[in-house]
Amino acid sequence: MFKNKNTVLKMGRVKWFDQAEGYGFISPVDGSDEIYVSRRAIANTKIKSLNEGQDVEFSIYRSSHGLSAADVIAF
Question: Where is the CSD domain (predicted)?
């Protein structure tokens, strides 16, 4: 998944991430609904997991899970 010029980036914090299963949820800082995130959405290919409480930047798309994160960059 790659950003395009129409992509809106959001900021959030990892609510939880199950490293064994490879997915979790992000709580956007704007208070909107939690966003599903999978390890495949992490933009840095050297990072395969996220940590609870970690700040992230991401874009959103609609998937079979509902709203999902893409292009996730962890700080």
Answer: 9-74
| More confident site: 53 or 6 | 53
Q: pTM, whole model, 2 decimals?
A: 0.86
Name the strand (E) or helix (H) holding 46: none
Tokens of 6: 């129409």
∠ at Cα 17 (43, 36), nearest 5°?
70
Structure-token match 């509902």, residue found:
66
Judge residue 27's burial from the number of C-beta atoms within 10 Å of its C-beta, 0-12 exposed, 13-18 middle, 19 or more buried: middle
Architecture of domain 10-74: Beta Barrel (2.40)
Domain boundaries, the chain: 10-74
Phi-psi category of residue 31: left, alpha or beta, with phi > 0 → left and psi -120 to 50 → alpha? left
